[in-house]
């Protein structure tokens, strides 16, 4: 089974970025950062997605994020699937926070049920086959629209790039560095859409 142990985000100010993820979102054990000067504009093709128990927890994370310097991209609203909103972290990463529950039920503030790295890809089926061929276990698959994988504490999901951008409330256009490396046990490789994997954990 493929396991993702950490997400490595690149930033011009990695120390500040690390503090944001640790203090505002409570992800210091699952997200690390390192410096980069590579240019990156617009949407980088991925979102870091927090799945939480109820709407009160969603609001708590969005409030904490904006208080720590994130930009509110999509205010939290009810939708067909539940309740959620989107932030752009100070380092430029798009972060979504969502719940399938439309009503509060007393969940503990700061609780994260699941952390998902969603990748916006050109062809879901091609990317899915790439990962399956390397032993990554499919958790859910909806044809050419969506696939998720069982990858441990950090789940991996594939969606069409435009669909992912629309769901997050951002423009799909972007260029330059993705400023993301996936740390896990697939070794050093790059997938069909240019997302990089590395094989060891990193500290700031």
UniProtKB/TrEMBL annotation:
Keywords: Lyase. One of its GO terms (molecular function) is lyase activity. It comes from the Bacteria. InterPro entries: Glyas_Bleomycin-R_OHBP_Dase. The keyword Lyase applies. This is Lactoylglutathione lyase.
């Amino acid at each position: 089974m493929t396991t993702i142990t950490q997400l490595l985000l690149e930033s011009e100010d990695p120390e500040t970025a690390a503090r944001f993820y640790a203090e505002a979102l409570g992800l210091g054990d699952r997200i690390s950062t390192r410096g980069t000067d590579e240019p990156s504009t617009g949407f980088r093709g991925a979102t870091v997605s927090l799945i939480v128990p109820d709407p009160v927890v969603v609001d708590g994370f969005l409030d904490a994020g904006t208080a720590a310097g994130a930009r509110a991209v999509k205010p939290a609203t009810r939708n067909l699937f539940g309740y959620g909103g989107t932030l752009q972290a100070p380092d430029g990463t798009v972060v979504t926070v969502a719940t399938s529950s439309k009503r509060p039920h007393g969940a503990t503030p700061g609780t994260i049920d699941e952390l998902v790295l969603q990748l916006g890809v050109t062809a879901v089926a091609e990317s899915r086959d790439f990962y399956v061929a390397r032993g990554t276990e499919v958790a859910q698959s909806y044809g050419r629209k969506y696939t998720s994988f069982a990858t441990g504490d950090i789940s991996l999901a594939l969606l069409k790039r435009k669909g992912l951008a629309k769901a997050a409330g951002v423009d799909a256009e972007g260029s330059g560095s993705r400023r993301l490396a996936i740390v896990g046990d697939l070794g050093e490789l790059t997938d069909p859409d240019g997302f990089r994997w590395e094989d060891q954990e990193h500290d700031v």
